[in-house]
Amino acid sequence: MGRKKVRGRVSRILAWLVVLAVLAAVAAGWYGFERFSRTPLAVGPQRQTIDVERGSNLRGIVVQLHARGLSGAPWLYWRLLAARMRVADRLHAGEYALDPGITPTRLLDAMAAGRVLQRNFTIVDGWTFAQLRDALAHAATLRHDGAALDDAELMRRIGAPGELPEGRFLPETYAYVKGDSDLDILKRAHEAMAHTLAELWPGRDKDLPLASPYEALILASIVEKETGRADERPKIAGVFVRRLQNHMLLQTDPSVIYGMGQAYAGNIHKSDLTTDTPYNTYLRPGLPPTPIALPGRPAVLAALHPTPGDALYFVSRGDGSHAFAHSLAEQNRNVACYQLKRCHD
Fold it and tell me: For 69, left (φ over 0), alpha (ψ -120 to 50), or beta?
């Protein structure tokens, strides 16, 4: 065999080796890319989040993932994945959840669909408006646009100028995303309460001593503060409705406590019951001038559909339930039994 033939054969072998090496490298790269697309990010056992600022591009997102140690994959893999998914130019700004097990594919899919992380803020039945404002001030990732506003300006900003805020916000869980304002939540809760009253008021029981939906809201707030038991709300409402009908003082401690404001230190004394405030229902007839808390829908329903009967009094048994009485003598016996622990067979 001549030298030229030998050199030709060697050249062909080398060429094939180069081709094979290239193919092997491509195959290895493709395998690595496919593995990358399906391998979870290094999130750890607890959820993390990532913020995509407005104007951010794919490279900026990958840089952030690298900086936080969530991904060590090369930029090329991310670029190829975004191209294959056709999402490179469709990634939305916002806060995204990084749950344990999330893969690059799932992350880019969420960003392309704009499935930003939703958080929940719960308004608790029976909170006062002051407690609601305090909770909003501590809510994570909310813009606190209303924190520095007084109540009157805050109500104006949510579209309810001139309204007193107490009782006007429906206890419920409200979803929000990072960047939403506390005023957004307040506006939605205010609209939800207005809708609830508008829905329920027309179907109220006949002959209630309530002149308006606002008076129903006041009564509902008292019921809310008097009991947390669902089965007792209509019974409690019935007692107060009959007392109003009979022109009796309501004599409800939660209203007195509300009128005490910051002076209330956890206990109510006889002197508090004889100190006049607009909310002292031991001294002033009728309903207090405003709600004393944020009543939930069940309390509103109880105020509009009280349990009929003859009970005019109730006292706590100390276990969350109440004993009801139709006469003062029976009430006094219940007080002696459940409050003073002097029960007699």
Answer: left
Spatial separation of the C-alpha atoms in residues 140 and 120, rounded to whole Å: 10
The residues, ordered by sequence, that sit 6+ positions from 269 with a Cβ below 8 Å of its Cβ are: none
Q: Give the whole-angstrom CA distance, residue 134 versus residue 87.
A: 41
Parallel, antiparallel, or unpaired: how do β-strands 313-316 and 173-177 relate? unpaired
The model's pTM is 0.84
Under the banding of pLDDT at 50, 70 and 90, the label for residue 265 is confident
Asked if 56 and 15 touch (Cβ cutoff 8 Å), the reply is no
Domains and CATH numbers, the chain: 39-116 (3.30.1490.480), 118-199 (no CATH), 207-338 (no CATH)
Q: What pLDDT does 165 receive?
A: 98
pLDDT of residue 34: 82
249 touches 282 (CB < 8 A): yes
Which tokens is 62 given?
């990958």
Q: Establish how many alpha carbons lie within 13 A of residue 245's alpha carbon, considering only the half-sphere containing its beta carbon.
A: 16
